[in-house]
Amino acid sequence: MKLYDGMGPNPKVVRMFLAEKDLVLPVQLVDMMKMENRQAEHLKRNPSGQVPTLETDAGTFISETTAICEYIEEKKPSPVLIGMTPEQRGETRMWTRKIDLNICEPVGMGFRYGKGLKFFRDRIHCEPEMSPGAMRLGQANLKWLDDQLAGRTWIAGDRFTLADIVLFCFLEFFGPMGQPLDPALKNVTAWFDRVAARPSAKA
After folding, report:
1. Rounded to two decimals, what is the model's pTM?
2. List of residues 6+ apart from 25 with CB closer than 8 A
3. Are strands 27-29 and 2-5 parallel, antiparallel or unpaired?
4. Is 81 within a domain?
5. Strand, coil or helix: what is 104?
6. What is the mean pLDDT of residues 111-115?
7. 24-37 pLDDT, tens per residue?
8. Angle between helices 186-196 and 131-148 (to 10 degrees)
9. Number of neighbouring beta carbons within 10 Å of residue 23
10. Is there a single domain that holds both residue 115 and residue 21?
């Protein structure tokens, strides 16, 4: 396997997932500032021009973060980060989907269409008027999650999973970019600190 890496929260999700697995892959950095991700060489690997992208042992390419992590889990099941049973895998996928759609996506749009507009306007379709509402939506859904985390160590209960990694990487990345974690969200803040203490958080 080989990882095509770059800047942003999604590449960090894969790096952190690999670190939890104690798995080291060859890495090629794709420089987004120089728009290497939009050049023909990378578009052959990933027609969407995004990172991360994983080259599999078979020489094919996987280009969505969750799909990459699920492939890695199948190749190296231990330690388990998605699930050992259909029930565990279903629960992890459910939470990862909720986190991705309800928090990460609006937080990301809030940045891309707002503070990040200068960088993204010539790269993707942008809707600047959506930025304030997207950020408010992300915060509202974080408040919902704060209630759900009461009495839990991790998002899926006592199992540290892909859902924790995805949310942590997005909150860590976008916090310094105008969307800091509200300290009033006591459960989310305590959860964030627990994840940040893991060695993989430095990936």
Report:
1. 0.94
2. 1, 2, 3, 18
3. parallel
4. no
5. helix
6. 88
7. 999 999 998 898 99
8. 90
9. 12
10. no
